[in-house]
Amino acid sequence: MIYMKYAHSVKTRVILPKDEEGTGKRMLISLFSDTPKQFLEDEEPSIESSYAQGLNNENIVVLEWTCSTTRHINTFIQRFVSRIPDEKLRMLSEQEDRLDDDLNFYIRLDKDSFENGEWVVTQSGKCIHIRIHIAAYPAKKKTALEKIEALFKDKAL
Known about the structure:
The chain is an alpha+beta fold. The chain has one domain: Ribosomal protein L5 (50s Ribosomal Protein L5, Chain: A), CATH 3.30.1440.10. It contains six helices and five strands, in the order E-H-H-E-E-H-H-E-H-E-H. Strand 2 and strand 3 form a beta hairpin. Helix 1 packs across helix 2 and helix 4 packs antiparallel against helix 6. The chain is globular.
């Protein structure tokens, strides 16, 4: 595998009941590794936790992890493009509104499907929020869109 820099960082976030905090951490790590337990033993990711009251006064936890290691970012991208159907990847690469002016590309994965081993892109509901800060040179939206298209349409990894 060639380790080209496709992104500067990948930020992941999930919101769930407070008593599922451990499950949420494993969920975020499993975006980057087939073996979350081994990953945790090898390196301790700095997953940030914040606590709040949910809509029904339930205690919730918001877990966030920003990964900026090229090896982990490329592993995430490889895992993502290999698990999402080609037609969905093409659709994602054509949705310019997912890319903001700071070259952050936004994706949501259905949390329940992910817990069952499926990577399903969704627009709403209980989900894992992913923000990929695209490494585009020059740092322009057009260049970032070309890189996203190359990644998702051609499975560049």
